[in-house]
Design brief:
Two copies of one chain form a homodimer. By secondary structure, chain A is α/β, with parallel strands linked by helices. In chain A, 40% of the residues lie in helices and 13% in strands. The first copy, chain A, has two domains: 183 residues, Alpha-Beta Complex (Aspartate Aminotransferase, domain 1), CATH 3.90.1150.10; 221 residues, Aspartate Aminotransferase, domain 2 (3-Layer(aba) Sandwich). In chain A, α2 crosses α9, α4 packs parallel to α5 and α4 packs across α8. In chain A, 59% of the residues are buried. Chains A, B: It comes from Naumannella cuiyingiana.
C-alpha cells in the first residue's frame, strides 16, 4: 500500500452512513435475497445524497461536509519509531487475541485522560470499543427493543441516529437553546412520554460542541439536565468526542463527573490522536459494563488489540497533551476562517452558530430556501455541506445545513463560504422571482428547533 | 505498554464469550438497570466456567482449552520495520477514517488469498470486518429476526452460537459423520422445518478442520451439501478460518468456489498472520454486500483502518505464503504430539478425531463420564479443556470435550494428555465404585451426535 490514494468514499463521523460508503456500483439490480432479511434490514437504506457525495469528494470541490479530523500535524517519524519499538517489545501480545473488555494498561490510561474532565473512574468500569460508534451500537443493542424510545437533541449526530434506527428504536428529538439541550424541553418530553405510559430507554446527548449544532452546555446547564434525569429516572448517554478540543480554555467537567450511576460516558481517541485506530471507549456502571463485555465478545471477540497497544504506546511515549494544544491552535484558525467567511459572504437572513470548539457550525437559511434541494447546485459551484435533514429522525431540518471547518485549510474554508454565498444569492433570486415552490413544508418551518439564535 | 504481561483473561476464537473475559469482579451486586435492558440482553450471561478458566490460565496449568494461534514465529523485526515504513509512507491515510467497506487495496489482496482455494471474486464483493466474528455478527443482524432458525453443525463454534443467541435466533443442530456435516441429516432438517411451515435463514458450516470437531468435508461432500441447499433454497455461510492450514497438502476448493450466489464466505487473517489486527472479511453476493456495508457503518463507521494498512503492508512486503508453510510445520508437530499423547494416555473406551489441520481434536469420554462435571478436578490436576456442552445450543455434548493443540509446545501437550489421562482414570474408578450418579442424562447420551467414530 505505497500510494497515498484515498478510496473514493470514506466513512466520516459527521456523515455516518447517510453519506459515506461506496457509490461505485449503483444498485439497479433486483435483490434476490430480499425475502430473507430481518425486519430491521428493510430500514437500512443508502442515502439519496450518497452518490452526490462521491462527486463532492473531488479535489476541485471545497468540502465543508466531512467530519474528518486534520491529522497532518502528527509527527510520522515519532509514531513510526514508537510502533516499531512497540512491536519489538510486545509484538507477540499486541498481535494476539486480547481481552474482550480491552487491554488493562490502555484502560488505565483512559482513566487518566478522563480525569482531565473531572471524572474519577476505575479501569474495570471501562470497556474499549471499535471507535465510539461501536459504543453506541453495543449500548443500543443492550438497551433497546424495537419501538423503544430514545431521546436525542434536535438536531443530533447522524451516526447515532443510524445506529438507533438499525435497532428499530424510535428517536424523539428534544429542542435546544443557545446553551444546548433545553432542560424545560427535556422535562416536557419525559412528562409527555409518561402521560402516554412510556419511558425513554435513555437520553443521548453531546454536551461539548455538539455535532451538528456546534453548541455547548455550560456547567450549570449540565447540572439542570441531570436534575431532570433524576426526576424521571432517565439514563444519560454522554457522547464526548470533542471535549478536549475546547478552544476557549480548559475542558469543562463532564456530566459523568456529576453522576456516576446515571451517566454512561463515551470517549474516543479519534479527534485527540487519530481515527484510523478505531479506539473508543465506554465508561459505565459495573452491571452495564458486564453486559457490554458480553456484547463485545459476541460482536468481535475483542476490540482490535494492535490498535490498543499502538494508542497505549503513543500515550506513554509522546507528549499527547502538547499535541492536543497544537490541534487546538490549528482548529481555532479554521474556526475563525469559517466565521469570518460566513460574515463576509452570507446573504441577509442567514444565521449560524459560533462554536467554542469541535468541528461544526450549524447554519439556518433565509426563509424559503431548502438545503437539500439546493445541494446539487452547490456541488456544481464546487462547495459541499451536509443538509440539515440528515440530523433529524423526523424529516425536519430542511432550512439548515452543517458546515465543518476541521479538514480544509483556512484559505479553502473562506473560498468555500464565498462559493456557498454565491449559491445562496442565486437561490434567493430564484425564490424572489418564482415564489414559494421551493419552500420547505410548513410543518418543518414551524416545528424545526433553531439552535442558532444567538 | 513496555511489559509483556497478558491480561488475566483473553478473548479466544475457540472459547468465545463462553469462557473468555474478565472474572476480576464477581457479580454479587444487584443489577439496578435490569428493568431497562432489551429482551435480547436477558439471554447474555457469563458462562459458569468463566471463573474456572481464570484459574486455568495460570502457567502451571496445561491449557488445551484455548484457540489462540501460536504466532511466536512471526519475525518481529520484519513486521516492525514494515510498520514503520508504512507509517512514513501512508501514515496520514492509515490513521484517518476509511471506507465502511474496507480499504480497496486490501480487498484486492484478499481476493488473491481466496484464489488459493479456487475462488474467483471481485474486490467490490468483499467487506472487511473486525475479525470474522464481526462478519457473523453483521450477517446475523441482517438476516435474523428473533425466533428465526439457523442450522449449524452438531457440535459448532461457540462464538457463532453466542452471536446467533445474541440476536435471539434458534439454532437447530445438524449431525456430522466422519466427513463432516451429513447431507442426509441436512436434508432431513430442512424437510422437517418445511413440514412445520418454517425455513432456516441459513446454514452455518465450517468445512475445513471444523471447530470443535476437527473434521473436514471432502470435495465431493461439499458438492452434495450444496445440492441439498439448492433443493431447499438454503443460503450457506461458509466460515473458513483454518482452510490454508491444511497439514495434508494443498487447500481444498471452498464451497464458495462451487456456488457464488448461494454461499457467503467468511475469511480471516487471524490464523494465517495474526489475530490482534482483527482483520476478517465477508465475500457476499452484491445485494448482501450492500446491506453489510450499511450495517458496518452503523456498527463502527469503518473497520480499523490502521489494521488494514498493516495487514496489507505485511502481505505486500513479506513472504506470507512461506510463513504459512512454517506455521503448518509447527502445527503438524503439535497435532502429532496430541495424537501420540492421547494414544498413550487415554483409558479404554475414549475416542477422538484425527484432524488434518486446524487447531482442534474432539474427544468422547467413556460412557458414564461428564466433561463439565469433571472440569474442576481436571484443573486441579493442572490440565484444562473446553467441555463439549459449550458447542451445543441445546445442552448436549456432556460426554465430549474439545482439546486444542495450537498454543502449547509439543512437550506440554503430551504432559497435558498425561494429566488428562490421570483424571479420566480416577473418574472411571469413581464411576465403577459408585455407579451411575455422575452420568449425563439419558437424552444426551442417546441423541448426541458422535463425529469421532473414525
Amino acid at each position: 500500500m505505497s500510494t497515498p490514494a484515498r478510496p473514493e468514499s470514506v466513512a466520516d463521523p459527521g456523515d455516518g452512513g447517510a453519506v459515506a460508503g461506496s457509490a461505485r456500483r449503483q444498485d439497479t439490480r433486483l435483490d434476490s435475497y430480499v425475502d430473507r432479511y430481518a425486519a430491521r434490514t428493510h430500514g437500512m437504506k443508502a442515502s439519496a445524497v450518497r452518490a452526490l457525495f462521491a462527486v463532492a469528494n473531488r479535489p476541485e470541490v471545497v468540502s465543508l461536509a466531512g467530519g474528518m479530523p486534520n491529522i497532518a500535524d502528527l509527527p510520522l517519524n515519532v509514531v513510526g519509531d514508537a510502533m516499531r519499538e512497540m512491536i519489538l517489545d510486545v509484538g507477540p501480545q499486541a498481535m494476539q487475541y486480547g481481552s474482550g473488555q480491552g487491554e488493562p494498561e490502555l484502560r488505565e490510561q483512559i482513566c487518566e485522560v478522563m480525569s482531565l474532565e473531572g471524572i474519577a473512574a476505575h479501569p474495570d468500569d471501562v470497556t474499549v470499543t471499535v471507535g465510539s460508534q461501536q459504543a453506541l451500537d453495543l449500548l443500543t443493542r443492550i438497551f433497546c427493543d424495537p419501538g423503544d424510545v430514545v431521546l436525542a437533541e434536535a438536531p443530533s449526530y447522524v451516526g447515532a441516529l443510524n445506529t438507533f434506527g438499525a435497532y428499530q428504536s424510535r428517536v424523539v428529538h428534544v429542542g435546544m437553546d443557545d446553551h444546548g439541550l433545553d432542560p424545560a424541553a427535556l422535562r416536557e418530553a419525559c412528562a409527555s412520554l409518561q402521560r402516554h405510559g412510556a419511558r425513554a430507554k435513555f437520553l443521548y446527548t453531546i454536551p461539548n460542541f455538539q455535532n451538528p449544532a456546534g453548541l455547548s452546555q455550560p456547567v450549570q446547564r449540565r447540572r439542570e439536565l441531570i436534575e431532570v434525569a433524576r426526576e424521571f429516572d432517565l439514563l444519560i448517554i454522554e457522547d464526548n468526542p470533542y471535549g478536549l478540543l475546547n478552544l476557549a480554555g480548559d475542558p469543562l467537567p463532564a456530566m459523568r463527573s456529576m453522576d456516576a450511576e446515571r451517566v454512561i460516558y463515551l470517549g474516543s481517541f479519534s479527534k485527540t490522536f487519530a481515527p484510523g485506530f478505531r479506539a473508543g471507549w465506554v465508561l459505565a456502571p459495573h452491571a452495564v459494563r458486564e453486559k457490554l463485555v458480553l456484547a463485545q465478545e459476541a460482536a468481535t471477540l475483542c476490540p482490535p488489540v494492535f490498535s490498543q497497544f499502538a494508542v497505549s504506546k503513543y500515550l506513554s511515549s509522546h507528549d499527547w497533551r502538547g499535541q492536543i494544544e497544537s490541534f487546538k491552535s490549528m482548529y481555532a484558525a479554521r474556526r475563525d476562517a469559517m466565521l469570518a467567511g460566513l460574515s463576509e459572504h452570507m446573504p441577509a437572513g442567514t444565521t449560524w452558530t459560533r462554536p467554542d470548539g469541535g468541528f461544526f457550525v450549524w447554519l439556518t437559511l433565509p426563509e424559503g430556501l431548502d438545503s437539500q434541494a439546493m445541494l446539487p447546485r452547490a456541488v456544481s459551484n464546487r462547495v459541499a455541506y451536509v443538509p440539515g435533514t440528515a440530523f433529524y429522525a423526523d424529516g425536519l431540518g430542511s432550512r439548515n445545513m452543517r458546515l465543518s471547518y476541521c479538514y480544509p485549510t483556512p484559505e479553502r474554508i473562506i473560498e468555500g463560504t464565498k462559493r456557498l454565498g454565491e449559491v445562496l444569492g442565486r437561490e434567493l433570486e430564484l425564490h424572489e422571482t418564482f415564489g414559494l415552490h421551493d419552500q420547505p413544508r410548513a410543518v418543518e418551518r414551524s416545528q424545526a428547533p433553531r439552535p442558532d439564535q444567538r
